[in-house]
Amino acid sequence: MKGRKGKKRRKEQKGLSRYEIRLGGSGGQGIITAARIFAEAVSEHTRKFVCQSQSYGPEARGGASKAEIVISEEPIDYPKATKPDLLLAMNQAACDTYFSDLKSEGILVVDSSLVDQVPTSRSIGIPFTEIARKEVGKELVANMVALGALTCLTKAVSPKGVEKILLAKVPKGTVEMNRKAFRAGISAVKKLGDLDLPKPEEVEEEL
Amino acid sequence: MKGRKGKKRRKEQKGLSRYEIRLGGSGGQGIITAARIFAEAVSEHTRKFVCQSQSYGPEARGGASKAEIVISEEPIDYPKATKPDLLLAMNQAACDTYFSDLKSEGILVVDSSLVDQVPTSRSIGIPFTEIARKEVGKELVANMVALGALTCLTKAVSPKGVEKILLAKVPKGTVEMNRKAFRAGISAVKKLGDLDLPKPEEVEEEL
Predict the structure, then answer these.
(1) Is B79 an 8 Å CB contact of chain A?
(2) For residue B207, is it within any domain?
């Protein structure tokens, strides 16, 4: 009995061993770039395994597109997010299309500037596009606002770690704009107060 | 019998129904960017399904990194390239690490500026890095030279289709440099003459 209890506690401390994220939006919203930066940051700054992927089908043209990230403490055999723990929907089409795949206890995050009809009360609405426009002056960086929120909500990797990768990836001349957007996303989540969310293992140590 | 023959002919005309590509190199060589552009071009300009992914492990740091593309006429369930039809190795470490996964009749393409020891005679050597340095003046765009070669070797999508995506993705101010590198990669393959390679379905029609 002692052994089992010990195991249980260890499991609790470790958090979830596999964590699936799906970002959904339309083609021009930069969700793949956000997913790639996030995945590289987790890889670079934690000891976890990460797989990042996107699928394109002929039917995707003009419709909802998606990018996925799977984080695990073990090597990842199946890299698709079949039952996301977190779905971030950047528009109504993505919310409608992908909501049914979300794990029952999963978190839905929507861009409340663009998603009016939210299919669950267990959701977090943040106006990514509006924040990008009002605080940075460019709707284009709504993806970086979303990246900031994603970082803050999942706690899979530190904001500092993500920002480092972000600044190395974006074109010169857009660094300040992207940093500002990213930080605005973090602030927006902090303003929501204490959320009790399932999340991947806490960041123990930055590498 | 007539039916079976007809089916066989159709299969030959259609080419391979699933085609796996792996690009291997080191972190800074831009293989993920090349893979992403290629995948988006196939998606945008053909009727095929595409999945593009990258896996990162704690062990990947500083070593060989990879990006994968799976192209299929049908929806893709398993998005990893377990037995690549084409492996493009941008350095010796990638060649050494990934060669054993290559399908027995698969094609190995190496950056001959950086890979000295090639494990098979069934390989194509193109000096991507040297071409980038000599013809464009920037080693940084070796990935775009490789993208040109990949496009020309696989014939999965037209060079024009890939170039269109490429020009939309790269930062302003680097468009000419990237275009030049991409075209240099195409020329390098054309100079090799007629290669009898297995390839995905020919491009029938640009969309």
Answers:
(1) yes
(2) no
